[in-house]
Amino acid sequence: MIETKDLNRSLLIPKWLSPRSSFVEDFLFASNSNVREIVDDVSRLRGEVDDFRSNPSTTQSADLLHASIVLGEPEIAHDLATYIVSHERGPLSFLRVAKRVLGDNQVNLPELRTRDLIAQTRAQLKEYPKDPLLWIDLARLYTIKGQLWKAKPSVQVAVSLAGSNRFVSRAAARFFVHVNEPDVSVHVLSRAYEKNPDPMILATLINCCILEEKEPVFFRRSTMARMSKDAKRDASELLATAGILEMRSGNDRLAKRYFRSGWRDPTENVIAHADWVIRHKYAGISVAETLDFNRSSEANTWRRFYGRDLVRAVEMATKWSLEEPYSTHPFSCGSSIACDAGMYKEAVNFARTGRVANPDDLVLRNNLAYALLKAGSLEEADQELSMLPSCVADNPTALIAATRGYSCFKHGRIEEGRRLYCLAIDYLKSIQDLRLVAKAMLCHAFAECEADSDEALESASLALAASRGFDDPSIEVLRESVERK
């Protein structure tokens, strides 16, 4: 049985994008003033820019562009970006940044391989060893490769150089959430907020406190009330976070008010979260015109999925996975939706790619095994399943038991397959997860029907009855498959 991680997206944890390959929303000139004491000073930059103007070169312009962004010099950055774009030469990552600086969001450039980008970044660090953005980008590249033992020291160096910088502190927090150390995220963000009282840092700090099950003492209703009257983009994540806190405490009226305020001028991160809120909590909430879901590949993936446009949903999940290649979510989502769409080769590719950065993620490994079974690669599927836990103690292991059950049916071991499906269903019933119970029963029924067993008709009747009324395309697709069988 295959599954996504959609229900785990209730918090507002920022994406970790490259500062060079995308001119991201939370990487603003105004937020980088605290870096000036750490990186080479502005006067030296201006001297180098004067030298460049008398003897220009594309390589030097790329280096100076990055330094001007780090030092918070937008006018210099604009001049350098103009030069780079007009010559269309130099490193591809800097050409993309140059176009972002000039406001050209329609950037269509070939991607370098992660290995090449690591080599390029390491070479640049020899010239700019105190550049925190290069260090945090190197950490991101190592994380994508699954080399966390290399990524962690790079994150620590970036934090030591510019721990109170908005981009650096939030990226570092995202890394520590990724490696399941939310307590370190809280520590990094707390120190950053003490030096730089930035609302976007505070928003991430509160969400990491919730993740660590700590009381977010930084939340002040009076502050939120003032912000909600004149909501700016910098405050959108904090207002949405206030909505999360009120939603969790059961104050729906105030939660909706804060969400609506945060959605007036939202970041892309808020848009992705808003889609989750509307689907899972407040279906009837009024949506601001500024909430353009096309700005978020994550939101677009889910909206296509729930609209039963599964092929386009797979395309959007591919785009999402390119933005967050270190995260498990786009790959678990992509592999699951691709299976629903009957695109089993694509499902295998999603799960395999996601497993590179997340080799120990049980949902991804289970999704890979299930996709291989559906694709007819039984030996490969069994090899994947042999490396997964056999006990049924939580949702991931219940999914694995169901997938093992399907493998048994595929190999003709009907009784063993039934036993495993029943183990998974009984556990899901015990935790009262009715949606997954319905899904597991449908998967079991499909396996019985596919095997043309004596219990196929009874199993199908029970599963169809138990799965009525769920607004879930995966369940709808399974119901249709069982009905056809």
Blueprint (SSEs and pairs):
Layout: H1 42-54, H2 58-70, H3 74-87, H4 92-101, H5 114-127, H6 132-144, H7 148-162, H8 166-178, H9 182-195, H10 199-211, H11 221-229, H12 233-249, H13 252-262, H14 268-280, H15 297-306, H16 310-323, H17 329-340, H18 344-357, H19 362-374, H20 378-385, H21 395-410, H22 414-430, H23 434-450, H24 456-466, H25 473-484
Helix pairs in contact: 1-2, 2-3, 3-4, 5-6, 6-7, 6-8, 7-8, 8-9, 8-10, 9-10, 10-12, 11-12, 11-13, 12-13, 14-15, 15-16, 16-17, 17-18, 17-19, 18-19, 19-20, 19-21, 20-21, 21-22, 21-23, 22-23, 23-24, 23-25
Task: Summarize it.
By secondary structure, the chain is an all-alpha fold. The protein is 67% helix and 0% strand.
Short descriptors:
485 residues, mainly alpha, Serine Threonine Protein Phosphatase 5, Tetratricopeptide repeat, 0% strand
